[in-house]
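Notes continue from the previous slide.

Worked example: a multi-chain complex. Inputs as given:
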Amino acid sequence: MSFLNLFRRPASAPFARERLQVLLSHERTAGKQPDLLAILQDEILATIARQITVEHENVRVRIDRGATVSTLEIEVEIPHLVGTVPTLLARMSSAGACHTVRMPNFSHGIV
Amino acid sequence: MAKVLVVTSGKGGVGKTTSTAALGAALAQAGQKVAVVDFDVGLRNLDLVLGAERRVVFDLINVIQWVAKLSQALIRDKRLETLWLLPASQTRDKDALTEVGVAGVIKEMRSKFDWVICDSPAGIERGATLAMRFADVAVVVTNPEVSSVRDSDRIIGLLESKTERAERGEHVEKHILITRYDAQKAQRGEMLTIDDVLEILPIPLLGIIPESQEVLRASNVGSPVTLCNATSAPARAYLNAARRLKGDVVPMSIPTEQRLFRRLFGRRAA
């Protein structure tokens, strides 16, 4: 059997199981409480928009909802400044279903 | 007083109509008076699976709109005299389904049958929400596959919030029916196992219907699988599931096809 195992593709069902568990843990809370990541995204973009005019296509938002930690990345290209085009990159993480903001991580800051 | 049961799933093609026909027939075979109601307005198929497609005169919408009486629209099964079908309309718009209208029809049926089984359309639109709206019991049909499990989870959430019972603070009895299960694939790690599905969707298991060519064969000839070939693996699984619905304690198993010689010579050859 072990010889045959060499030719066998790895089992895919465990991936299905894990993906479902992560997805449903988010979807089950989504109906009861608003999605924190979506709120943060709206508020951060509104704050930026109050200060500078940003074209829609210059905003890139990436969300990755994980089992224990979710991350929200917002990347904004700020035009109309002399010289280089600066980019604002905000990355935030939340832990678990309670969505506590663990760190407003601005380590990439304003480039 | 009848129990109103909804067969639902969210996802299409998982076996709601097959399961409605098989469970309805199995309950009728056990002597219960059963009505199966097709809620899939515009895409009716329960009539076809039950082999009654040529006898449809009136439908659910006609009854709701007082064009026909319930007794005129109900079609009695040719094989089982305690099984009745209320077909869906094939031509009307699904907006013709109204909550007040459905409530009236279900109320009238409650007084005439032991079981009223509502075959829900796929999705979460009007037809699906009204099919579950007045249910006492729900059978959530799920394939051991990611999209079906996700949609079942969504449907369980709706059963717990959007049914009349839930709104009154009462319990809706929910069961999961796992269909198209392939034990060998699950054993090889190619398909979610029963335990995987039950861990993700924690509601009581009503039955496990094995993947089988008998299901296609039964729909080809327009007969519920429990009637078409009552000793086949899916038929035995549905018959057991129906007994559990009635409250009988039946040990959970995954029926397998019996070999020909075993069928011919009974237990002696086993």
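Summary box: Chain B touches chain A through 17 residues (CB under 8 Å). Chain B has one domain: 3-269.
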